[in-house]
Design brief:
The complex is a heterodimer. Chain A has seven helices and nine strands. The longest helix of chain A has 18 residues. The mean pLDDT of chain A is 88. By secondary structure, chain A is of the alpha/beta class. By secondary structure, chain B is mostly helical. Chain B has two domains: 34 residues; 226 residues, MetI-like fold. Chain B has eleven helices and no strands. The longest helix of chain B is centred in the last third of the chain and has 39 residues. The mean pLDDT of chain B is 88. The chains are: A alpha/beta, B mainly alpha. At the A-B interface, helix 2 of A face helix 7 and helix 8 of B.
Chain lengths: 250, 265
């Protein structure tokens, strides 16, 4: 697998003196679905922000293959939509800020991205008219509309109910698999089950300061076949990752 | 449960009924005790003064309204622009905001005589007084609004390489709109108060004088019903400004902001 980004000796210390990350060495391969798994306060969100370029490391380097940071999509824990405008305009935002495509083309791409996440027909809906799950779909469509090489997600489904979360998990894997290696996902979560279900690789982090404790490859087909959630394979994988997480916390 | 239209009708009927009862009791008491009109005129006498002196009172109302609305317009323009400037430069905000507060907390009655001395044109000096009172709520609310954009959205704009201009136009200004409109509603009432107070202080008569002068004049001439009529017109202007700005607020926010949504649903 081609490396996409290499973090070498990355540390992050905040102005308050808190050491959020210490000595992170991590290479993310192109086309991976990588989960950062760990308890609250282990610095996984900080790590994601460093990869996004929203924060700078205090020490160490973040080096991208090809030199420059590629196009990035970012999904926050909340849908983080602009409440004053429609779903379509929210999804169009990244293209509008970029400003290179003509307006009609921007609209067409935004509509296509909405339809990709199962929200065709909701172009004119305002965020407050949508359910929590639908808002998160709009947020994902907005992240995908630029056809990013990397999709960064910071506990995107933590606030949703389990039924909605499971459905979004399936849809997310399908969206990733459909891009066949052209899109890398880095997914922050504190759920063992979610990380195992989604990922091709799980990086377990331990807190105070945040370090990498385990680096586990997760085998299995993508998209997940029907019944995977209740299969013995899935249970065994979850047990393995759970033990890894407990060992990291000890 | 009560049907929605019935409920809404009652919501308007009850205060209207209370008002009518109040006016009837007022008129009844004035007649029963034979109170002279130069002490407390009854509603009927006030109404007669209002209709009888209508050309004069209406002219004065237009003068007062014109000053209040122009002052409001100036407050929106200058307050809004200054707020945007402050949002772009925190140093400027820190340097100038305290002086805006000084302007706000100093009573307009105390500043008005100075302004009347400095500015030759009476209308302009009234306008400046009304503007001073109306400007602060617009400024402070808009500053608050511009600074309260969703932090994650701010980061998202940064991530996509948004320019300052784009962040202002597409994110900060829409975020500030509900705050600005709330400030505008306060400023609307204050602009009228400022216009009236300044005219009282100016105490200037003549053909182009507003409702405050009519009140003073009626007081000198002991035409108390006319005084009450002018007072009622000032209230009516205030209510009209407040209602119009409320409608504006509702129309602009109804699709997305909680404050307007709740009123609807």
């Amino acid at each position: 697998m081609q490396p996409l980004v290499r973090l070498a000796g990355v540390s992050k210390r905040f102005g308050s003196g808190t050491e959020a990350l210490s000595g992170i060495d991590l290479t993310i391969g192109a086309g991976e679905f990588l989960s950062l798994l760990g308890p609250s306060g282990c610095g996984k969100s900080t790590l994601l922000r460093l990869v996004a370029g929203l924060a700078e490391p205090s020490a160490g380097t973040v080096a991208w293959a090809g030199g420059a940071r590629p196009r990035i999509g970012f999904v926050f824990q909340d849908a983080t939509l602009m409440p004053w405008t429609s779903a379509l305009e929210n999804v169009r935002l990244p293209l509008r800020l970029d400003g290179r495509l003509p307006r009609e083309e921007q609209r067409a791409r935004a509509a296509a991205a909405l339809s990709d996440v199962g929200l065709g027909g909701f172009e004119r809906a305002y965020p407050r008219e949508l359910s929590g799950g639908m808002r998160m779909r709009v947020s994902i469509a907005r992240a995908l509309v630029t056809q990013p090489a990397v999709l960064l997600m910071d506990e995107p489904f933590a606030a949703l109910d389990e039924i909605t979360r499971n459905r979004l998990n399936d849809d997310l894997i399908a969206l990733w698999a459909a891009r066949a290696g052209a899109m890398t996902v880095v997914f922050v979560t504190h759920s063992v089950f979610e990380s195992v279900y989604l990922s091709s690789r799980i990086v377990v982090m331990s807190p105070r300061p945040g370090r990498i404790a385990r680096d586990l490859a997760i085998p299995g087909p993508a998209p997940r076949p029907a019944g995977f959630r209740t299969s013995a394979d899935y249970a065994a994988l979850c047990r393995g990752v759970s033990e890894g997480l407990e060992a990291a916390m000890a | 449960m009560m049907g929605r239209p019935t409920g809404r009708l009652l919501a308007h009927a009850i205060p209207a009924l209370a008002g009518i009862l109040f006016l009837a009791a007022w008129e009844g008491l004035v007649r029963w005790y034979d109170v002279p009109a130069y002490l407390v005129p009854g509603p009927v006498a006030i109404w007669q003064a209002l209709t009888g002196d209508w050309p004069m009172l209406a002219g004065s109302m237009l003068v007062t309204l014109k000053i209040a609305l122009l002052a409001l317009l100036a407050a929106v323009t200058l307050g809004g622009l200054l707020a945007i400037l402050f949002a772009q430069s925190p140093i400027l905000e820190r340097a100038l905001f305290p002086y805006a507060v000084v302007l706000q907390v100093t009573p307009i009655v105390a500043i008005a005589p100075l302004i009347l001395i400095w500015v030759d044109d009476v209308t302009l000096s009234l306008l400046i007084c009304a503007w001073i009172v109306a400007f602060f709520p617009v400024l402070s609310n808009t500053v608050l609004g511009l600074n309260s954009a969703d932090r994650n959205l701010v980061e998202l704009f940064r991530l996509y390489g948004a320019t300052r201009w784009q962040t202002l136009m597409l994110l900060r200004l829409p975020s500030a709109l509900p705050f600005f409109l709330a400030g505008l509603r306060v400023a609307g009432g204050l602009a009228l108060i400022g216009a009236v107070v300044a005219e009282f202080v100016a105490g200037a008569g003549g053909t182009g004088s507003g409702l405050a002068w009519r009140i003073l004049e009626a007081g000198f001439q002991l035409k108390i019903p006319r005084m009450f009529a002018a007072l009622a017109l000032i209230s009516a202007c205030g209510i009209a400004i407040f209602a119009a700005l409320g409608l504006l607020q509702h129309l602009l926010l109804r699709r997305w902001h909680e404050s307007a949504v709740r009123a609807e649903g």
